[in-house]
Amino acid sequence: MVASISACKDPYYYLEVDHALYYLTGDTGAGVWHGEGARFLGFTGTVFGEQLIAAFNGLGSDDYTRHVRLPHTGRNRQPAWDITFSAPKSVSVLWSVLGADDRHKIESLVMQAAKRAIDYLDSRALLTRRGKGGETVEHAKGVYALCPHGTSRSQDPQLHIHSLAINMCVRQDGTTGGIRSKDLYIHKMAAGALFRLELASLLSKQLGLKVESDAWSFKLAGVPQSLCDEQSKRRQVIEQLAKEEGWHSPAVLAQLAIQTRAAKGLVSMAECTKEWLETGEKHSFGRQEAEQLLDAAQEAISTGLANRLRDDARDKLLREALKQGIESLSNSQSYFAERDLVQQVAASLQASGLTADEIVDAVEDSVDGFEHRIELHGSHYRYYATAATLAAERELLSIVENTKGVQSHDVSNEILEKAKKKVEKRLSEEIGVPAELTFDQHSALIHITQEPGRTKLVRGTAGTGKTQTLEAANLAWKQSGYQVLGTALTGKAAVGLQNATAIRSVTISKLLRSLRPELTSEELKQHFPQKFAAALRGAYFEGFRARAWMKNPLGQALKEMEQAYHERQVARPRYKLDAKTILVVDEAGMVPTKTMLALVQECDRVGTKLVLIGDSLQLPPIEAGGPFASLCGRIGCQYLTNIVRQRQEWMREASYAMVQNEPRHALDLYAANDCLRIEKSQRAAIARLVADYGKLSAAEYSSSLALTSTRADAAQINAGIQQRRLAARQLGGPSAVLGNGERVYENDRVMLTRNDYQLGVRNGLLGTVVSVLQPPWREGPARLEVKLDAQAPQGAFIKAGTLHIDLEKYSNVQLGYAATTHKAQGATVKSSYVLLGESMLNKEMAFTQLTRASHSTIIYAAEAELGNTLESLANRLSQSFAKDLANDHKIVTQSQSSIETRQALLQDTLSRLAPEKHKEAAAPTAYLADARLSSTQTGALWLLIGQYSKLRNVDYEKTIAVVTDTFEVGRINNSVQGHRKAAQQLGVDSLEIRQGERVHRGDRVLVTMNNEHGAPRTLLGTAVGIGFPDRVVMGPGRGQVITTQAKPWLTIELDSQHQTGQLAEAKERITVEGRDFDKLQLGYAATADKLKDIKVDSSLVLLPEQGHSPQDIAIQLTRATKDVSLFGEQSHYGPILDAEGGKGAFAKSLDSLKRDGPDAESTSLADRYRQILEEQRMQRAQSEQSQLSRQQSFEL
C-alpha cells in the first residue's frame, strides 16, 4: 500500500553517508530511474548521487541543462516527493527467511508492482502548469527514482520502495516544467490498491503462491500470522504510543510514525537475516519450511494445479466488482472520479489474480459506457454519475422548478402582523427587554407566507433565528386555516423543532413510512433479525408457537413480523398531507437527494406547500447529494445572516469569520478570549476538557455538552466526567449497567440513542437520571426514571417530562455528558466544550461544533493537529466537504465527438476572422460550442437572446454575451433581466442605476473603476444587497423597498473568475454608493473593449456588422475558457467561414460534432513522446559521431 507521500526538502540529505546507503544502494539493491520523462532527460539505469542532486536542482542528467527553477531555500522548496509502496507483512516475512536467489525473485516482483503503480500515477496524476499565473494545466511525463529497501526502522523485515517523484516533468511538446503535487495525493489510494493487486497477481502467477484476501489488502497462505505479528515491532511501537496518547485516526498514526523514526543507518543484512531466521524457527517457519512452501507452489504451476480463473469467471468477477463499486460510490456521493472506482474495484479484488492493467482497462471501459460525464469547474478530471442518480436529480429539480410562481397557502397582512407581534411579545417577556424580529427574519416571514411559490426555502447559518421565524409563521398559517406539520432527518431535530415552534413534528423516515406504509426491502432486512430473535425467545416458552415453529420456522417468523408491524401501524398516529397542509423541513441541508425527492413527490402529488429550512454550512448529508444548496441557487431563497443565538459579540464575529471561510481569524478570536486550549497530545486535551467540564455545579450540567468527532472520544470524556462527579459526591444511590457496558448513577446525564414511538422518545434526547430502580421480583436490567431536558411528543409513558425506562425493553441509553457532532446537530446549549477531533475535521464539522452554544464555547486541540502554528489547523478548517448535485455542473454526453476537434474549429475560426497581427491567444481549453447565422443582424441578436434565456439560474454567473454595439448591449441586458424576473430568479427589491436601467437583487452587474495606479479596470459580479444608509422600509405584503430621500447603495459580490490585472480576491464584496452609479451597468452583455480584463466559462458572441476592426472580433472570441457560441449575419460571415472548404463546410463540420468536455489526456501523447525520444536519440548519436570524428582528426 502507499504508506505515505511526503515532500523532500533538502537534496543533500540523500547524499549523507547513511542516507545515501539507505536510498541509493539499499539492502535489496540499487535504486533505478523510471518513467518516460526520466528517459527523455537522460536519467536511465542506476540512480547515482550526482544524478539525484542534478534532478533535485531541476537539471538534466547529461548536459546539466536547467529545466526547472526552484527556490534555493524556504518552505516552498520541494525538489521531490517520496511516495512509499510497502508490501504486506506476510510477503516480507516469507522473503526474510528465504535464500538469496528466492529473495531476488520476490524483490523483483515488488519492484515490478511499484513500477506499475507509478505508471498509473504518471498517466493520471502527473500534471503541470504553464502560462501566466499557471492557468493552463496539462498532462506530462515524470521522472522517478525507485529505491528498494527491505527493513523497517526497527529492523523488522519490511519490503518497500521509496519512489522519489522529482519536481520536473516533460510536456507533450518536449518542454519541461514542475509538477502539481496535489494530484499525487488525491490518487495515492488508488495507486496503493493497484500496487497490492499487481503484487498479489505476480506472486500468484510467477511463484504459484496462494493469496488470500485480508480486508483491503492480501496475505500469503501458509505464512504464520503469529510470526507476522512478532515481526511487526515497528507497528506495535506506534500503536502503543497512539494508545498512550489517545489517538485513533490513520492520519495521526502516520504522524506518530514520522515522529518516532529512528535514525537511518548502515544495516547489516547478514545480522538481520540471522535474527529473522531464529525468530522464524520459534514459529516453526524457518528456511526449510519457507522453501517447501515455495517448492509446492512452483510444482502447482508446473502441473497446472495452480488456481487460474477462466475467462468467463474473470469477466463475471470484474462485472460484479464494478457493479458493487459503482453502487457503493453512488450511495455516498452524486458523482465520482475514475480513480475512486479504480480504488474500490482493486481493493475488493486483491486475491482474484487479476492484474492492475485489467482493473484499469475494465474501469475505463465501464466509465466510457456511462451516457454522461460531469465536468467540474476548475478541475482537469472527468467525473461520472449513474443514470439513476441523474434521473432522480432531474425529477427533483423539475418538480420544484414547476412550483415557482404558484400562488398558494396565502396569509393576509393582518394575520401575519398579529402573529409577528405575538412572537415579539413572548421574546420580550423571555429576555426582559423589548425585542423585535430582525429585518432578515421579517423578510423570511414574508417569503414563506406571502410570496408566490409552493416550495419556499430559507437559508440561515446557525443561531440566526430560524425557529423564531417559523414560530410566527406557524401562528399565521394556523390562524389562516392551514394544517402545519414539521419534519427533520433526526429525532432530536424533530423534537427541537416542535419544542421551539409548536409545530407538530416527526422524523422524515417515520413520515414517509406513514405516507408509504409498504415495507421496503431495506426495512425487511432491518426488522427481520429482530423479529426472528424475538420469535425464537417466545417459541422457547410457548408450546403452541413452538409447534408452529417446528413446522415452518421461516413462515412463522414472517407471520409474526407482519403481525407486529401492523399492530405498530395501528398504534402509532398516521400523518396525512393534502392541499391545506404546509410541511416544514428543518435541517434541510442534511437531507440527501433520495429522501428529498420522496418528500417533494408526496407534496407535489397532493398540492402540499413545502418549506425547507436549513444551512449548507453545517454537516452535509451522509448519503449522496446536497439538494438544499442547489435548490437555493435555482429557485431562490431568503437568507438569514444576523446571528441572535450567541450572546457575546466576539463569538458572533468568530461565527461570521467561519461563514466567510476565514477560520484563522475565528481561532485568533477564541485564543484572545482564553477559549482555545492547546495540549501536547489528544489524551492531554481530553484530560483538560474533563477538568474544565468537571468544575460545573450540579445544576449547570443540564445546559452543557461536550462535542467530539468520534464516539470513542465521547465515551472517554463521559467516563472522565462521571469519575469527577463521583469523587465530588454529586452522584450516588443505586446504579445500573447500561446496554453498552457503562454504569449509570442517580443524577447522571444520559442520552437516548434510538427512536421508540411507543415510548415517545427520539434518538439524541438528553436527560438526567432521577432514580435507579431494581425490581425486587426479578433479576436483570433495572428501570431508570429520567427527567428529559425537553418534553418529548406523543409519549404515553411520559408525564411532566419524566420518562420511565425498562432497560430490558429499551437498552439504547448511554452517558450524556459528551456526544458526537452528528448527534448534536440541531441542539442548542448554554455552554459547549469542543474537542477538535483528529478525524473528520473540516469546515462543516467545525462550524457546527462552534455554533451549538449561546453563552460559552471552549475549543480543545492537540499539537499533532496544529503543527507548528495555528495556520495548519486553520487550513484544515477551511477544507469544505459540502455536497452538491451532479446537475449543478456541466453534463456532457459521452457518445459525442472529441473536444479536440471543437478546439481546432475555434482556432480555425479565430484565424479566419482575425488576421495574425490582430489575433489574441484563445484559452487552450476553449472550444466552439455552437454557431448560428441569421439572414439579418437583428435575427442573429434574437437568436443569441433566445439561447441566453435557456440557461439555468446557476449558469448566469459563468456566462456573458460579448458584442461590439452599445445598442445591442442594452437589448440583451433588458431581455435577459426580463426573463429572469418572469422566472422569479431575481429579488423584488431594486433601484435605478441610470436612466431606464434598474438593478434587482441577483442581477449581474458590470463595474468600471480605477485601480491604485489610476488605470481603469472592469469587474463582474452579482448584486446581493440593496438599501439606504438611513433606513429600509418594507412595502405591504410583498417586501418592496419604499424609496427615501437618502442616497442608495448597492452591494456586489465579485466573481471568483479568470480576471487579469490587480483585481479583488475571490468572492470579495464591494459597496457602491449612489454617486458612483454611473460606473455600473447590467452585466449580462458588454462590448468587447470593456471585457479586456475579464474571462468567463462561457461566452455568447454576436459578431459585428461590417466595418469593425479584427481586434474587436479577436477579443470577442477569446473571452471564454470553455465554450464559445457564435451568432452573426449569414451574408457576411458565411462565405468567410466556409472559404477553402466548399459551401456550407463550416456548418457541416460543426453539425457533425456534439458537445464534449476536455479529455484527461491527448490520445496522441504517447506517440508524440516516442517521436521526441527518437529525435533525442538521433541527436545524441549524431553528437557522439561528431565528437568521435573530431577526436580521430585530432589524433591523425
Descriptive labels:
single chain, 1196 residues, alpha/beta, Rossmann fold, seven-stranded antiparallel sheet, 21% strand, globular
Written account of the structure:
Helix 8 (233-245) packs across helix 9 and helix 35 packs parallel to helix 36 (966-982). Helix content is 43%, strand content 21%. It contains 40 helices and 46 strands. The longest helix has 31 residues, at 1165-1195. Among the domains are: 3-303, no CATH class; 311-369; 384-516 and 580-644, 3-Layer(aba) Sandwich (Rossmann fold), CATH 3.40.50; 517-572, no CATH class; 662-878, Rossmann fold (3-Layer(aba) Sandwich), CATH 3.40.50. Strand 37 and strand 38 (1016-1027) form a beta hairpin. With 1196 residues, the chain is α/β, with parallel strands linked by helices. Strands 1, 2, 3, 4, 5, 6 and 7 form a seven-stranded antiparallel β-sheet that branches. Strands 15-14-16-17-13-18 form a six-stranded parallel β-sheet, sandwiched between helices. The chain has a six-stranded antiparallel β-sheet with strand order 26-27-25-24-23-28.
Shape: globular
How many strands? 46
Structural class assignment:
alpha/beta
Outline the low-pLDDT stretches: 244-265, 519-524, 569-573, 791-800, 1031-1045, 1058-1066, 1153-1170, 1188-1196
Biggest β-sheet strands, sense, barrel: 7 strands, antiparallel
Q: Helix count, per DSSP?
A: 40
- Radius of gyration from CA coordinates: 34 Å
Work out the helicity level: 40-55%
Instruction: Give the N-terminus to C-terminus distance in angstroms.
Output: 60 Å
Strand content: 15-25%
Instruction: Write down the oligomeric state.
Output: single chain
Average pLDDT, rounded to a whole number, is: 78
